[in-house]
Amino acid sequence: MSRRAEDMQSIKPNIIFYPGGLVEPESYSPLARELAKRGHRVYVAEMPLNLAIFGQNTVGNWVKGLE
Question: Is residue 39 part of a domain?
Fold first, then answer.
């Protein structure tokens, strides 16, 4: 296996949580920490009124801010 293929296998996907259903973003902290320990980058978006329906494009706005 080439070095590049090995590198690709070691890459962990980013994980983004969209809290909803009136759940506080902090509720995702235990799971987010466990995933981060395993090498994932974990993001928990804050939603208006803790309802994901009101923040549907949150990640899209994050990406635009990085450009």
Answer: yes
Would residue 51 count as lying in a domain? yes
Which of 21, 59, 17, 58 is CA-nearest to residue 35?
Answer: 17
15: containing domain: 3-60
pLDDT digit string (tens) for the chain, length 67 residues:
566 656 656 788 999 999 889 999 999 999 999 999 999 999 999 899 888 888 888 888 877 766 6
User: Using CA atoms, how far apart are residues 41 and 14, in angstroms rounded to an integer?
Assistant: 5
Is 29 inside any structural domain?
Answer: yes
| Structure tokens belonging to residue 1 | 């296996």
